[in-house]
Specification:
Length: 143
Amino acid sequence: MNKVILMGRLTRDPEVRYTQTNNTLVASFSLAVNRRFVRQGEERQADFINVVAWSKTGEFCSKYFKKGQQVGVIGRIQTRNWDDDQGTKHYVTEVVAEEAYFADSKREAEAGNATFENAFGTTTPGNMGSDFEVTSSTDDLPF
């Protein structure tokens, strides 16, 4: 099974292009995804993951996603390679988005871009956003 679920912040606005053969929309963007654990004495680290979204999903991403927003993506990992004009072989691994969601609250979305810009421009990428907090308490469960 090849299934990926990511939540992170966009490092730039989605870039849109169209295929030459059948004029299909493709949106490309990168997500800064925080690593779950932080080593003592170090800053939080992030992985920068390339994402491509095709057709309607790509159109949605290109219309509504902006740099700094926290988004969720569900998709699959894809690897591909090609030879350039000089004969050099290139390899790329990316996530093909099958579903895309907003993950910011309205308040975070309004303040998110400025916070992201400051964090991204002045510190390491690991300082962006927040992770889920998992608690072991069952007091709030409805069953």
